[in-house]
Specification:
globular; binds adenosine monophosphate; 215 residues; five-stranded parallel β-sheet; 48% helix; 9 helices; three-stranded antiparallel β-sheet; alpha/beta
Length: 215
């Protein structure tokens, strides 16, 4: 099964993708993670995208489509969760073509619906374990009091450079201008499902499972 998790920054795509990786043995493909990795490796591409990401703008279609193509070529079978990709209509078309070339297809697109006020407080409160990527939120899932990640015991927690109000405003603008048209695009293809992304993590997880159980 190949699915897209679609929604604005802070909607919970990464959190729900990680849950699916653990529970359904699927592979998470997050273009944001790939780009952050490129940035920290100080590669040519990393240098190119650093400022773009810090501003909250979208990286060019060529770069992200190239990253996804690299991951998909040679990957075995189905079972991908596309997290943060596609973000433009050109990326959506490219994904359709790539999956077709692999003899595969997209099963469903799960839209996580949330309102903007919730996004600001969620994003400015979030942090991640530097060792395993487990996600925390100061309000809803605080870091353990003993200072050790509940998943791997790591003690180093990081906050994303672009998780500040200014970048977030720009990331939201980009979402509404360039990514939200994908809701209509996938609705037209008959593959869109929407869930309320504002609930507790477990409630959203259950709603997503109900959607996926139909396949
Ligand atoms: P994310 O981790 O998905 O919130 O992405 C962080 C940042 O990486 C975004 O604000 C963009 O600058 C960039 N990015 C991630 N995925 C894409 C994509 N599919 N297209 C363009 N830019 C992306």
């Amino acid at each position: 099964m190949n699915i897209i998790l679609l929604g604005p920054p802070g909607a919970g795509k990464g959190t729900q993708a990680r849950i699916l990786v653990d529970s359904q043995n699927m592979v998470q493909l997050s273009t944001g993670d790939m780009l952050r990795e490129a940035k920290s490796s100080a590669s040519e591409m990393g240098k190119k995208v650093e400022e773009v990401m810090a501003r909250g703008d979208l990286v060019t279609d060529d770069i992200v489509i190239g990253l996804i193509r690299e991951k998909l070529i040679g990957a075995a079978g189905n079972g991908f969760i596309f997290d943060g990709f596609p973000r433009t209509l050109a990326q959506a078309d490219a994904l359709g073509t790539l999956l077709g070339e692999m003899g595969s297809n997209l099963d469903t697109v799960v839209e996580l619906r949330v309102d903007d006020d919730a996004l600001v407080s969620r994003i400015t409160a979030r942090s991640t374990c530097a060792s395993c990527g487990e996600m925390y939120n100061d309000q809803t899932k605080p870091q353990p009091v003993d200072g050790k990640c509940s998943k791997c015991g790591g003690t180093d927690f990081t906050r994303r450079a672009d998780d500040n109000e200014e970048s977030l405003r720009q990331r939201l603008m980009e979402y509404y201008k360039k990514t939200s048209p994908l809701i209509g695009y996938y609705y037209g293809k008959g593959v869109l499902s929407s869930v309320n992304g504002l609930g507790e993590i477990d409630v959203v997880k259950t709603e997503i499972s109900q959607v996926l159980n139909q396949f």
